[in-house]
Structure prediction request, 476 residues.
Amino acid sequence: MFSQSLAPNTTQPAVYLRAPGADRGEELDHGLARASLRKIAVGEHAFLEGAPRSYIFKVESGALALYRSLGDGRRQVLGFGFDGDLIGLGARKCHLVGAQALKPTTLRCLPVPQLKQMINANPGLAARLYEAISEELADAQDRFFNVSQRRAIERVAFFLQKLSHRNEARGADPRVILLPMSRADIGDYLGLTLETVSRTLSELRAKGYICLKESRVVQLRNLNALNELVDSASDDVE
Amino acid sequence: MFSQSLAPNTTQPAVYLRAPGADRGEELDHGLARASLRKIAVGEHAFLEGAPRSYIFKVESGALALYRSLGDGRRQVLGFGFDGDLIGLGARKCHLVGAQALKPTTLRCLPVPQLKQMINANPGLAARLYEAISEELADAQDRFFNVSQRRAIERVAFFLQKLSHRNEARGADPRVILLPMSRADIGDYLGLTLETVSRTLSELRAKGYICLKESRVVQLRNLNALNELVDSASDDVE
DNA sequence: CGCTGAGTTGAAAAGATTCAAATTCAGTGG
DNA sequence: CCACTGAATTTGAATCTTTTCAACTCAGCG
Prediction:
């Protein structure tokens, strides 16, 4: 793929690995279990863009936005870190994304040298990291085409669907979504303005697909319709 | 990052690694040098979406489009494979992207079992693959925000800039770009329609930034202006 | 009880898509 | 070698979507 080898000022990845599943990442879990805890308040950063990568983190509780700043004050949110997620991984020496807490957040911090040691001691861990990061790439691609070629309503539906599936995977209610992030964060994630996000949520409510009691609590009332918005690439669902 | 752990039908990554640089991937090069050659014609596939991952490929000459199909016949082009690029890598058993030749293309084919053997014999190789894929992820993120929050003219400038840098990195003329792909391919890559791509190229020509003698040959006449279009919103942290 | 920041909503403007037509280009067969 | 055919490209005009700018509501908090 040409893009990476061209990118001269390519942005630094922090590489976000998912939380190890049941049969993966035992070593990581083991190391992390003994790692130190750190608490950060809303608005504080786990790490800043450009900061040296000293630790990798596992989110114990709370939520973070992973973003890159643009020159003109705008920013691109690349993802969110929720409890169970690993953040801050990557091959480079510095983070090129920042991780800012959206609510009070607790992190486990594993020093990078220790991670490297673990990898050296256990080559299988490298393969796991590789798998995890290739998942991450797959996800980035998934998000890419769900954003680049779709309308606002489809993007928002995609976003809600992902959160719903995440709940499901964790045994939480897939029909009730708690949003720790603002409309602006969602917009920066989906490539929309905050007004469009708000309007689109209102539109989904008008269609009866969702229910918005509080602005940060979304009830999904018609999961099928949402899924169709995401899956059907161009059949309008009115 | 939540997205990956949610994605239920997450798309399969083929993981696209870049061509090994001067000091990287010697083992890969070594193995590939003895790998078998395969030629494919325009429109043929190196591998189809969903096909089992039997080989990884190095593009010797030619060009391919790496894409995923959408339900309704549209597709998302995730990248292009040019000579020197490695394609088809990834942790999963099947490709979830297809790789279709844009012009007559020659590939080196390295069987996956052999790659695994090489990794086992040389743990350092795994680290290199990890680095390479984290670069790939960084690139995907780069592309992501260059597409999701920008106008057509900025997207096209970004595209041309990348190709220009690629030429530069390879000792080719950074001011002359040969496009092996159609306007539709570019559009599918940038999240635009082919008409918009065409119009935007015409606009860049009208501004005097580029020169289009033939539709597949672009001369960059004002590299600074193009760079400003790209950088206007994204200020790199380095 | 007024502030402040987040969210919602409206209206005008900008930008991209869609549909349609014209033009260029490449490859084929005469 | 040239005309023909189909594909790729360009361009135009109408339409649709999203953004922008602005006003307004609401909840939390000093």
